[in-house]
Amino acid sequence: AIVSASLIVSSLLSEPSNFNVYSTYHVYLTQLLAPLLGNFGSAFMAPQLPLTIMQLIGFYFLGRELYHSRLFGFLLTILSFIFVQINLSEFWGYVTSPIPRFSFQAFLPLVLLLVLKNGSNVKRWPFLLALSAATVYLHLVSAPAWSVGILLSLWFMPPRATPISDKLKYMMIALFVFILVLSP
């Protein structure tokens, strides 16, 4: 049974037309790791531990940045790790397989931390929106909503003395870069 399941997965992943509608990094990573690890199951599960550690560390540092407290950084880490079932089969928290949603959730605090630390500098907006656009390759469903949220929040992050012309100029550049990253 295991051999036949492995053959089915192998035949599905060997043909790009089977998954090119919803293409995330995980399919390619699994294909890359399968020969090294000996099978697709192990290759699929290989990112689980790194993603789990990334989520825990990311939310800890995000909590420290938001609340200026190690205790609240730790509490945010614990709260973000609790599994919560949301409507429409959506969820948040730790899951036992590195599905695209979990990958996005592991990278999200790092993206938000970079936005918090760099959003007040309009010259960094193109980089931040490029990073936001790149999350579409992690999880196509989550990336648009978070990208819009990041885009809107950037507008209000610079100091009040920042000229609107600068904000408009760098927002247009950032949107161009955003679309460029999404284009593939």
Task: Outline the structure in words.
The chain is mainly alpha-helical. The chain is built from nine helices and two strands. It has a two-stranded antiparallel ribbon with strand order 1-2. It has helices at residues 2-13, 25-37, 40-45, 48-67, 70-81, 100-118, 125-134, 143-156, 164-182; strands at 84-86, 90-92. The radius of gyration is 19 Å and the shape is globular. The longest helix has 20 residues, at 48-67. Strand 1 and strand 2 form a beta hairpin. 68% of the residues lie in helices and 3% in strands. The two termini are 37 Å apart.
Quick gist of this model?
With 184 residues, the chain is mainly alpha-helical.
Please give the alpha-carbon distance between the first and last residues.
37 Å
Number of strands: 2
> What share of residues are in beta strands?
under 5%
Cα radius of gyration in angstroms: 19 Å
Given helix and strand content, the structural type is: mainly alpha
**What is the string of SSEs from the N terminus onward?**
HHHHHEEHHHH
Mean pLDDT: 88
| Adjacency order of strands in the biggest sheet | 1-2
User: What best-fitting shape do the alpha-carbon axes yield?
Assistant: globular
Query: Which residue ranges are poorly predicted, with pLDDT under 50 across at least 5 consecutive positions?
Result: none
Helix content: 55-70%
Q: Main sheet?
A: 2 strands, antiparallel
